[in-house]
Amino acid sequence: MRRVVDGALRGRAPVILGGPGMGRTTVVNAAAERLRAQGVEVAIVELGDGDAELGASPNGVTLRSGGLALHRALARGRLPTLEGRVVQRVPLMLLLRRDLRAWTAAAGFALGEDELERAFRASGGHPAVFSMWLDAHRVSRSPDALEKRLLASTAELFARIERELTHPELAKLWAWLAERRSATVREIQRATGATKAALDRFALAGPVSRTLGASAEIEVACDLYLRWSRR
User: Fold this and answer.
1) Cα separation, 172 vs 181, whole angstroms
2) Which residue of 24, 54, 69, 156 is surrounded by the most CB atoms within 10 Å?
């Protein structure tokens, strides 16, 4: 969110990009509130999963959110400008354990480390799935009951993720990784021929995570989605 606010204040046109349920609306609205608190006039344009055009900007600062289709369109060439503002891409990724720990504390949950670890493994740090996990946790703390409730509440979200993963660019990557659970980035690139841009969109799609650095890895992070996809 800091990147979004700072970019807007520096004259850029931020575009928040993420797969289904990755919190695009939450980030856009929170950033808009911060900007308005500083006296900045802000407009919000929320684009759907399949929208690939940025569209015109209303007067003042405009914050946009979009999905993988828009990410593909923006990645085809140099970043465009909108009314003189350079487009700033802000991709959303899965949350880390420390993020979930802070979230549960802020929401007033007193979770033990074992419960938090189960929640992390089930959700993989996917914000929408973790939010549903917390809602289910209010009703029952039994692991079996939690999973049953979660599988029911996440069905629509998982169907949206599945549609993204059947895109020709991502289908081969998902089929390869789902069987192995984890691999180095170099391994998946050798096996599938994936480009960095494709791996970026693969991570944006939702059920996988990436680590960067010399030993960069990619893995299936959301266990619940993996079980749902093999139903």
Assistant:
1) 14
2) 24
Helices (H), the chain: 2-9, 24-37, 68-75, 97-106, 113-123, 127-139, 143-153, 155-165, 168-180, 185-192, 196-204, 223-229
**Tally of structural domains, the chain:** 3
Q: For residue 27, what are the CA distances in angstroms to 34, 56, 72, 94, 146?
A: 11, 21, 21, 13, 27
This prediction's pTM: 0.90
The arrangement of strands across the sheet holding 81-82 comes to 42-46, 61-66, 13-17, 85-91, 81-82
Give the angle 137-142-146 at the CA atoms, nearest 5°.
50
How far is residue 215's CA from residue 157's CA, in Å, rounded to a whole number?
31
Tokens for 192, please give them.
Answer: 């599938």
Q: Which domain holds residue 78?
A: 2-91
Burial class (CB in 10 A: 0-12, 13-18, 19+), 122: buried
Q: Are residues 142 and 168 in the same domain?
A: no
148 and 182 belong to one structural domain: no
Query: pLDDT tens string for the chain (231 positions)?
Result: 889 999 999 999 999 999 999 999 999 999 999 999 999 999 999 999 999 988 777 667 899 999 999 999 988 865 667 777 888 999 999 999 999 999 999 988 888 899 899 999 999 999 999 999 999 988 887 878 888 888 899 999 999 999 999 999 999 999 999 999 999 999 999 999 999 899 999 999 999 998 876 578 999 999 999 999 987
